[in-house]
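Entry:
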Amino acid sequence: MDSIELCAGAGGQALGLEQSGFDHHALVEIDESCRQTLALNRPHWNVVSGAQSDLEHFVGKPYKGVDLVAGGLPCPPFSVAGKQLGKDDERNLFPHALRIVDETRPKVILIENVRGFLDPIFADYREELRQSFRTLGYQADWRLLNARDFGVSQSRPRVAIIAMRNDISDKFAWPTPLRVTPITVGKLILDQMKANNWIGADAWSQRANAIAPTIVGGSKKHGGPDLGPTRARAAWAVLGVDGRGIANEPPTRDFVGMPRLTTQMVARIQGFPDDWQFYGKKTAAYRQIGNAFSPPVAAALGQALGLALGGAVRSRNSAFA
């Protein structure tokens, strides 16, 4: 099964889809650090460069007939952290995504966005989007999925928008949550907290006995290498984590107080495998991680899409073994 990826970011969605059997023919991403991350981890991927790395200028016609068009379109137009301007926001890239769908005519489309997309204020826009897909020959639906239901140690609700070509629209079934409880943050990253022989690591692990709140990536204009605004930091403090910043390395042996997470810790909480590298300094790396689609959720969706397409699907349970 083949695909192209729009607004690929640091590769969270692309990685999950790859693990469920999709071969990416092109990945479109405007951010240079993200493009470097994609190339660093998958040198064989066709990471689009030049003017076409901007979705507004990307031409989909060379990829006509691809099985899947996937993407994580910018969330600020629908985020409750912003002004929720929706289609009136200059960062709204849905019109360009629809253009690319028209140029490529894939069998299926997968678009990820924030929970705010489902807010009542956007009811008319959602129906307008559904009609746009219908005009192109697709049946669209959307659902709120939480990463914690797919093995990720984080409460991370995200909207998945699926549009299936009319002739196969009855073949898709939404992925069912895994019947497992994600491990706590304390257990998940205990080995990383112990990397510098911190003597307080085991006690900290016992305190961090729940899954993480939503990791907030921020944007180039707002947000930096920290775990979010005041309310988010308070939620992290309950787990014994100092959310005011990101650490360069794990706590030292005699460290006292609440530790800060490293980018490697945040990546693991986000669902990335440990060998996935992020290009750039701490701020750039953290933003890439925090804004990513959790790979295990993408893998679950990829498996469901693969079954609908009749392709060879890999088990999501072993995708990151």
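The chain has eleven helices and six strands.
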